Amino acid sequence: MAKSPASAGSPKGDGKRLNTSVDPKARVQVAEALSKAVADSYTLYAKTLGVHWNVQGANFYGLHKLTDAQYNELHTAADAMAERIRALGQLAPTGTAAFRELTVIENDAPHKPTPEMIKELVADNEAVARRMAEFAEMADEAGDAFTHDMLVARIGVHEENAWMLRSSLA
Question: How confident is the model at residue 7 (pLDDT cuts 50, 70, 90)?
Answer without folding.
Answer: very low
